[in-house]
Amino acid sequence: MTLLSVENLRVTFDTETGPVQAVRGVSFSLGRERLGIVGESGSGKTMTGRSVLRLIRPPGRIEADAMVFDGQDLMRLPEPQMRALRGRRIAMVMQDPKFSLNPVMKVGAQLTEGLRQRDRMSAKEARTKALAALEAVQIRDPERVMEAWPHELSGGMGQRVMIAMMLIPEPDLLIADEPTSALDVTVQAEVLSILDNLVKTRGMGLIFISHDLRLVSRFCDRVLVMYKGRVVEELAARDLMQARHPYTQGLLNCLPRIGGPRTPLPALDRSAAWAKE
Amino acid sequence: MIEIDNLSVTFQASGRVVRAVENVSLSVAEQESFGLVGESGSGKSTILRAICGLAPISGGSIKIDGKPVTPQTKAFARQVQMVFQDPYASLHPRHTIDSVLSEPLAIHGIKNTDTRIEQALTDVGLPPAFRFRFPHQLSGGQRQRVAIARALMLEPRILLLDEPTSALDASVQAETLNLLTRLRETRGLTFLMVSHDLAVIDHMCDRILVMQHGKAVETLTREALAAAEMTTDYARALFTASADRMLA
Amino acid sequence: MTWNEWLLDPNPKSRAQSRAGQAWLQWLRFRRNHLAMAGLFITLALVLAAIFAPWIAPHDPIAQSLADRLQPPLTPGHLMGTDDFGRDILSRILYGSRITLYIVGLVILTAPVAGLIIGTVAGYFGGWVDAVLMRITDIFLAFPKLILALALVAVLGKGMENAVLAIALTSWPPYARVARAETLTVRNSDYIAAVRLQGAGATRIIWGHVMPMCLPSVIIRVTLDMAGIILTAAGLGFLGLGVQPPDPEWGVMISAGRKFLFEQWWVATMPGLAIFLVSLGFNLMGDGLRDVLDPKGAR
């Protein structure tokens, strides 16, 4: 079943020096699965993720032949309805929890704010629900975390709070933009298993945006490889090591490996043809 | 060449005392490449900053060539330089590449600025045409090359590398690591490098020190790391978490 | 090669070209903001009026003609009417722009520079240097600006120069505050650490590295304060402590028109409008500059 289908998505920024296309004709569809989008900085992977929520600010603009989420064309939806969709049915987790949590509000207040305002829940109900969400992301001491200020949380804890916050309205689609890049390897594994669990138990769709090929191949079902605003290759995650496109191969080969030889790492020779439409 | 003996660094942050580094000792030989590995908050970067006088030393000593260091003096600057983690934060946003590279020459009264700057740009693989660009007109990898060129302007013998590639894309990381290796070989530099990525450290360093919570856990040679011959649980846990970075 | 190509050349050949290119990009960004352009237009009009006052003013600003006193606006020959001595108000406003510009210019050249130096030095060194400099700043900030200026003029004596001095002495503390705040965020950045590691001294770091980062916020603050400076100058003139009659200063003109406010409203209103318009212009321009100069916005 298709949850989201995007056809010929384009994101253009009008700058002083002329229009710059950040995303050039990206099409994909997503079921209730884990879709990975990988690419280097400037490949347009973040812009693709944000476009789904129409979160591109002027001077950027979004164009697409169609962007259908659960039967609704997001391109034609008026802004108030789009706002109702954001957070409730499509949620987004950003890279750094430091910049996503309000520093002058306690964690508990931030978690319950949406429930109280949007869903008109009583304080008590909202609190129960927030505690449950914190437990769902395996925070051992949810009562204490509710009373904590964002700066008192470690990176891993902050990211888990962010995920909990996004998951409270039980969205159908979660867009995670480098959710683990700011975290240590050992914490990374925990956060990923939480996300994985949510996809499996709730049947949520997940767009996982990352620059880390190895991580994506381990964690996702399907992978889009982006280069300069275009999808150069789409393949099943388990086949990533057998990628055919020279860009994907190059990205894999240029990584150093423990116990590898001391010879210079193979450089990525970029071919102008990859960027052509 | 670098001798660190029982180093402790303590910060006073709003009444609380944070012990960032506790009794860490290490020594780096001439022209060796030494790595510091650990997760965030392990104190690995703090050691580099302490060497440069950017962190308050509360105990122990740091010696270079047997003499206690005198950070932030001109003599020290000609001996030790540092490359920072984030090339977006380590270059002044309103200075051109030209002024970034000519500054150390001006401070030390070194002549032939023009030839030296063009040579420095060529050495790090940047076209001389970039000389009058501003940092925001460069990509992350190009900025880090400028930062490396700046560190080498005074021809130091020791380079402190604080996660020099963790903010870069994989392909750019490979190019930057290759550049650093080449510069070390041609100039006989001594590296003290910090990274959270075991594969990067393994590729660059001869010996590594694993750190956790400000304490030294274990020193490993490159061979011992590849053969998974670690004796402490923490070093092993770190190694296991990096399993996908093993040679397939 | 056209000018545009030369300015936007990604590989400038010299420092000057690179700076010009950046300035050109900033101008392009500024030009998009219509309100800011309106502000710039008003400011330019003020400058032009000041320069060409002798040529565009229809009458001598201090020539009295008691036969024509208190003519209403739109009287033939007196577009904005005349005041109680029969002087043409339009001409007085045009000449008054010279005085306004002179005061504003002198204050700009002194107060922000002093504030910038004091603020960056305090912020960079911290410790007791910071404590001493900032307490002095606090003392100046503790008094309302106009009252302090009044006291200073009372001590120094009446006159335009002393008014300028009084305004400059009362308006530097906010710039010192702004510069210090900016310095505190810049001080611990990696690029400052890098230049310290190269053995640079404090003067070089403050002058070459810290000040360029503080300059935009100070410039923006200055343009936003400009209205306040003009009003303070007008206020001093109004109270008879600044520019002395018969010189056509706008504040003095309002003060003189106060007596006829109900019957001959234009005498006080016209210079009031001029003050309002110029203040608005500087404010709009300051808002536009904030978008262009903000170092956090520039990637």
From TrEMBL, chain A:
Transmembrane segments: none
One annotated GO biological process: transmembrane transport
Gene3D superfamilies: P-loop containing nucleotide triphosphate hydrolases
Subcellular location per the Swiss-Prot or TrEMBL entry: Cell inner membrane
Superkingdom of source: Bacteria
Membrane disposition: Peripheral membrane protein
One Pfam family in the UniProt entry: ABC_tran
Gene Ontology molecular function, alphabetical: ATP binding; ATP hydrolysis activity
Annotated ranges, domain ABC transporter: 4-253
Record key words, sorted: ATP-binding, Cell membrane, Membrane, Nucleotide-binding, Transport
GO CC, alphabetical: plasma membrane
Similarity comment: Belongs to the ABC transporter superfamily.
Name of the protein: ATP-binding cassette domain-containing protein
The organism's taxonomic lineage, starting at the top: Bacteria, Pseudomonadati, Pseudomonadota, Alphaproteobacteria, Rhodobacterales
UniProtKB/TrEMBL annotation, chain B:
Catalytic activity annotation: glutathione(out) + ATP + H2O = glutathione(in) + ADP + phosphate + H(+)
EC number of the protein: 7.4.2.10
Entry annotated with the keyword Ligase: no
CDD domains: ABC_NikE_OppD_transporters (cd03257)
EC top class, as a word: translocase
GO annotation (BP), single: transmembrane transport
Keywords per UniProt: ATP-binding, Cell inner membrane, Cell membrane, Membrane, Nucleotide-binding, Translocase, Transport
Single GO MF annotation: ATP binding
Main location (coarse class): membrane
Keyword Transport set for record: yes
PROSITE patterns: ABC_TRANSPORTER_1, ABC_TRANSPORTER_2
GO cellular component: plasma membrane
Subcellular location: Cell inner membrane; Membrane
Pfam families in the cross-refs: ABC_tran
Similarity annotation: Belongs to the ABC transporter superfamily. Glutathione importer (TC 3.A.1.5.11) family.
Role noted for this protein: Part of the ABC transporter complex GsiABCD involved in glutathione import. Responsible for energy coupling to the transport system.
Protein known as: Glutathione import ATP-binding protein GsiA
Organism: Stagnihabitans tardus
UniProtKB/TrEMBL annotation, chain C:
Subcellular location: Cell membrane
Major localization class: membrane
UniProt entry keywords in alphabetical sequence: Cell membrane, Membrane, Peptide transport, Protein transport, Transmembrane, Transmembrane helix, Transport
InterPro entries: ABC_transport_permease, BP-dependent_transpt_permease, MetI-like, MetI-like_sf, OppC_N
Cross-referenced Pfam families: BPD_transp_1, OppC_N
Membrane-related topology note: Multi-pass membrane protein
Domain called ABC transmembrane type-1: residue spans: 97-286
Membrane-traversing stretches: 35-57, 99-127, 139-157, 218-244, 264-286
UniProt keyword annotation of Oxidoreductase present: no
GO cellular component, one term: plasma membrane
GO biological process: one example: protein transport
Coiled coil ranges: none
Family: Belongs to the binding-protein-dependent transport system permease family. OppBC subfamily.
Protein name: ABC transporter permease subunit
